[in-house]
Amino acid sequence: MAESTLSLDAKNRKNLPLEYSTEEGDLRIVGFWMFLAAELVLFGTLFGTYLVLKSHTGGGPTAQDLFKIGPVMAETLVLLVSSFTCGLSTLELRRHNKKGLITWLAVTIILGLVFVGLEANEFYTYVTHEGATLQTSAFLSGFFILLGTHGCHVSLGIVWIAGILIQLARRGITPVTARKAFIVGLYWHFLDVVWIFIFTAVYLTGWVM
Amino acid sequence: MMDSITNFLSHFFVTGDPMIYGADASIALVSVAVLAVLTYFKKWKWLWNEWLTTVDHKKIGIMYIIAALLMFFRGGVDALMMRTQLAMPGLSFLNAEHYNQVFTTHGTIMIIFAAMPFIFGLMNIAVPLQIGARDVAFPFLNAVSFWLFFAGAMLFNLSFVIGGSPDAGWSSYAPFAGIELNPGVGQNYYVLAVQISGIGSLATGINFLVTILKMRAPGMKLFKMPMFSWSILITSVIIIFAFPAFTVALALMTIDRLFGAHFFTIAAGGSPMLWANLFWFWGHPEVYIVLLPVFGIFSDVIATFAHKTLFGYAVMVWSMIAISFLSFITWLHHFFTMGNTAPVNAFFSISTMLIAIPTGVKIFNWLFTLNKGRIEFTTPMLWALAFIPNFTIGGVTGVMLAMAPADYQYHNSYFLVAHFHSTLIAGTVFGIFCGLHYWWPKMFGYLLDEKKGKWAFWVFMISFNICFMPMYFLGLMGMTRRMYTYPAGLGWGPINFIMTIGAFGMGIGFAIMAYNIVWSAIHGKKDTTGDPWDGRTLEWSIASPAPEYNFAHIPTVSTRDAFETMKEEKRAGRAKPPAPFKPIHMPNNSGIPVIMSAFMFVAGFGFVFWWFWMAIPGVIGVIACLIARSFVYDDFHHIPVDEIERTERAAGRLS
After folding, report:
1. B582 class by beta-carbon count within 10 Å (0-12 exposed, 13-18 middle, 19+ buried)
2. Which of B205, B209, B269 lies at the smallest CB-CB distance from A138?
3. Rounded to two decimals, what is the model's pTM?
4. Residue A121 belongs to domain with CATH number
5. Which of A19, A172, B190, B313 is the most buried (most CB within 10 A)?
6. Is this complex scored with an ipTM above 0.90?
7. Interval B534-552: pLDDT, tens
């Protein structure tokens, strides 16, 4: 854990943003990028599974039968805006503005909650109105698990950001809290990117094909 | 009431087999003995402070190796049971169902709970020392990885006394592994236990990738790293790209079994072939996860005991990179016979054969390293030298299997079984035994006895050939894998009998090694220099056993054989006087990893039995541990200068 083992010495770190200003912060951010690479494979596998099973409706409802454009557009809009507010929070972090950082992260959480609520409602509608459940067909198994995994990630992100908000309120912006806020931002943007693929591969192709 | 309790217990515990009762009794006795010894010697606090909560990579490595050796024993006993059953035609030592369970647990345990953790143990011990670092990038996460593996291993091993073992093979093909055809809890154990330890493996991959990329000593460019560290860098990348696919596959199988989804079922549009693809998309890279690290070990060991620099260093690295890339585009060769079109089979056939090229390059480089070297026949070197021809046989038969049309003849025969044991035993097992003897003094400060080590080597290596050489011919004679018995009159009996003798010989070899470990713990030669082998890399530049902080001064590296260069400079009188010590920043111990894994175990056990009242609190416990960790801020301390001085003086490092 010695400072000298890194390519950057302490003097050079002074010019970096706060989250990169310690060796520990640097290591963890790099580590998180590696984790996101693993997440990419995880979601890639789920997408692959969904696309293989998409036509395997087993006599149950198809994508065209189920997907409604309204709720999906609302979910998309809310999540994209939350990614934007999350970006604003990182901007405030760079400006060392604790109040701005906390505010925008709080807005991100609220939008995240709205997204999870909308998605839960969408699932509820499928299950109660259409009788489309996880057990109905391979297509629906793939659908619920792909979207459910994304939804669980968003829910976890909400709990995570909430924890970081408490730490920010208590400790202010330090190299450690800055690193945590930055990393959760990476995570949140990643989920947004995944959603864009879900929107394309699940909903758009579901409507069209 | 009484009846329902009896009924429950008779299903909960595996009953009706005297061998299982024997296992029950021995598990109970060993557990009681361990608890009694710990209590009698008042070692609970020591155990908790020194081991259970440690984040020191060297101690975590030692725990990995102890656990892996135990798992080797378990997997080995499974193997001996199978060989006993097959020793002669028509035996009834094991019935068909029991045999299925035994080959399933043998494969799963050997790959996931013995080979991988053994390699993780060796890399934990050696990699930070080889690259001149004081710990891994994420010491806490490292402890989490270990304890997740441990929880998974315990959960898996519980299956044979509680609820029943999985019996669908280590590859657990759907639909047989699905709930309709395999309704008990056995396959639940498989999916959950492997999942839990798999999460730990993924974390290890990330941890070591960042460690190697970011924490190398000054001057150690990537192409100046020791070959073992290179192999772990590449292995880590494979882990990161292969394991999530398996995580998903196992999760989908779990959801199929627990919640009635239709990913891999036959009904409602499920696709059993999807499992085969996902499994082997991880499973083929997995064999390189357990092979590339031992390539690294052999490279370091051969260079050390030939007392020469490694031949063709850059080519060695690029070969491993090529193998790691190819490992991701060969998975379909595991099921050439399962209805692919000819062009698809042709592609995977060629991609598989291509792997022989970089592997062959490595074999030649090892041979050229030996050429004109001053070869010293130590125990680690014997394992390394035996690896070259034995592994090459496994490689060549692999190319035979890679020919898709010919594979229709060999597929799932004992020819295949012989092939992958030739690679996994002559490669992985020889490699980890080699690494174990090689790094043992660095772990414990004394050497394993050479004479007993060599006995273990010769007995094991010769027995390996007695067991697996005839197996190729048995496969060509038509015996398929996973048969629990065979009739007399097919001419298979004598060969099977010889193989069984070989298998027990390997058991004896392993027992000699275990005896050597115990003997050397008492009588072993002390390693006072820290450099018992005249090593070439940085781990030999520090005292044995390595101090907590590894390096009192972070070394500066200028060549590939960093320590060899340092020794030469010292001999030439060019060594610089050491700088004064500075306080060293170290991570604090933490109880969270072991507690979190205990919750994970509870959750896993609950899911195995569909007991959601148990599983859900377990999951909540895991999340609570994660949150608790997020709020820990004082997670490091400094080792003061006088303590460093004291430690270095005690190790004879200050003059």
Report:
1. middle
2. B269
3. 0.94
4. 1.20.120.80
5. B190
6. yes
7. 999 999 999 989 999 999 9
